[in-house]
Amino acid sequence: MTHGEDDYICSRKEFSEKLEPGTLAVISSGRPVQCSLDADYPFYPDNNFYYLKGLTEPDTLYAVFKNGAGETVEYLFLPEPEPEREKWTGIRMRADEAAALSGIENILPRSGAADFLADLADEAKIYAGDAGQAVHQRFAPGSADFSEALSRCQLADVGPVLARLRLIKKPWEIDLMKQAVNITARGLNDLLGELHPGMREYEAAAVFEYAVRRAGAELSFPTIAASGKNGPILHYETNRNKMKRGDLVMFDLGARYCGYAADVSRTYPVSGTYSTRQRKLYDVVLGVQKDLISAYRTGVSLVQLQETTVELFKCRLPLAGFKLPEAGIGAWYYHSVGHSLGLDTHDGTSRDLVLEPRMVITCEPGIYIAEENVGIRIEDDILITEKGPVNLTEKIVKDPARIELLMK
Ligand code: GLY
Ligand code: MN
Ligand code: MN
């Protein structure tokens, strides 16, 4: 399945249906942020902006005005070409391309946006921005650009509207997520083939990242390659440790394809063989994870799934011979069992989310025992359907015997 302007038009139609008549909504792609004298941080468009148009241009504004009769007109404000600058940093998108990609007819110069929108705001009752946009990319109610025009409007936040739309994936979004999963699978497979004692965590991460980059994808988030004592650090990012025989190494990583993220965790034995105790603990986590996945059904809440995770660990760890910590299971399991996944790795999740068909939710229980230098997390990406859970990351090996076989 391919996706194109019709898909974004459909998303924008859903969005504008949620707006009150008399609303002017404006969403920005954001601005690049400088990281040193002569370079910016890599630019990623704001995901709510990207979701509605599939465009990645910086400093671009999308506006939709819904008049009192409920009719909508859309505008895109695109920065004007700067030929001198383009000699250094490349050709920027032109109006005709932006129109073709987004399906928006009214493409206007970015420099005129404030005046144009101020005039529109005169006709509007409500000015809606996205208050959740990252601080450096903010173009929300309260922004100086519109303070005069906005003083006459009631202000609204469209962030929650977009978060809700983004929770329910369209078929083409699921297709892109499957492609992100395929690239992630390839990278992890390469990694399994190369993992050995003496390797640095960053070397292992680089094997994965090479597979991602050469597939034309990006990383969903900085790769976590946490071996030995780093295993219990949930979002460990240093990745400098030398991996030792006898250590476990927990990888939490993912490829991001056309904006859509995969998010997978696997825990491997550096030597190629789990110790007896590591294997026992691994089997507990894997057993709990498999049971949880089967509970990922419509109507179940993340709160319930979290409670189930805790109960399962409390029951199964002692059965496997592990004495529970005196401080309680929270000393060994200290994060949420899952979150919605999509354009963001943590995609519009609230803790009281109730599962619905076409959501993609991670399932990632873990046990972390700092005194034993052990962190085991197993994470899959689960598509909720009317017929039950579909594990999008099913083919990424997690069976311990198969992992050992692949590492031989
Ligand atoms: N990689 C972050 C998470 O699994 O939530
Ligand atoms: Mn996750
Ligand atoms: Mn993860």
Task: Give a written overview of the molecule.
The chain is an alpha+beta fold. The chain has helices spanning 5-17, 47-53, 83-89, 95-102, 113-123, 147-150, 159-167, 171-194, 201-214, 276-294, 302-319, 400-406, and strands at 23-28, 34-36, 39-40, 61-66, 72-78, 107-109, 126-129, 154-157, 218-219, 224-227, 248-253, 255-257, 260-261, 264-269, 360-363, 366-369, 374-377, 380-385, 388-391. The strands form six sheets. A six-stranded mixed sheet has the order 6-5-4-1-7-8. A hairpin with a 2-residue loop joins strand 2 and strand 3. Helix 8 (171-194) crosses helix 9 (201-214) and helix 10 (276-294) runs antiparallel to helix 11. It is globular. It starts with a helix and ends with a helix. 41% of the residues are buried. The model is unreliable at 135-142 (pLDDT under 50). The chain binds glycine and manganese (II) ion (2 copies).
Can you give the helix content as a percent range?
Answer: 25-40%
Distance between the termini: 37 Å
Q: Which spans have pLDDT < 50 for at least 5 consecutive residues?
A: 135-142
Largest sheet: 6 strands, mixed
Ligands:
glycine, manganese (II) ion
Sheet with most strands: strand arrangement: 6-5-4-1-7-8
Radius of gyration, taken over Cα atoms and rounded to an integer in Å = 24 Å
Per the principal axes of the C-alpha atoms, what is the gross shape?
globular
Report the strand count: 19
Average of pLDDT: 92
Figure out the total of helices. Answer: 12
